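Re: beginner question about structure tokens

> Can someone show what the tokenized structure looks like for a real chain? I only ever see the sequence side.

Sure, here's an example I had lying around. Input first:
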Amino acid sequence: MNNYVYLDTSVILSILLETEKYEEAGNILTKFQSQTFVTSGIALNESFYVASFEYYKSRNRVKGKHSLREIIGKNGYPREVIDMIMGFINDLNIRILNDYFDFDEYIQIMTKYKMLPNDAQIAMTCKYYSIHDIITFDKDFKRIPWLRVLP
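And the corresponding structure tokens:
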């Protein structure tokens, strides 16, 4: 059995964007710092997207998803967002796992546990790597029998 703890997007963004859950997220990460933190591409994908949207939104440069696509196409991802996410990964020594994907299992998890597609992908990846603990503020993961939602 490994001592991996998966960091979900909700916790990553709470820290990076200093949301109302910032302090709680920091306390949770401190509590579990003896574990090996892991995440995967899908959580990083969501983090880059939301953090970039919030970055450009705070500068009145985007209003919706379509305008974000246009601004990324012209300007790329904000260096500040890239550095912020990279710093977070490095500071916590987060191991980045490859997402596991099996189409039939993916559909089964989405339908059986009523999960959003990205969350089903995360649940399937955790199962593949025998990860039993996930740090998240997303209560939907409580429906996944092989995951224990922390805290």
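Each token stands for a local structural state, so reading them left to right follows the chain. The radius of gyration is 16 Å.
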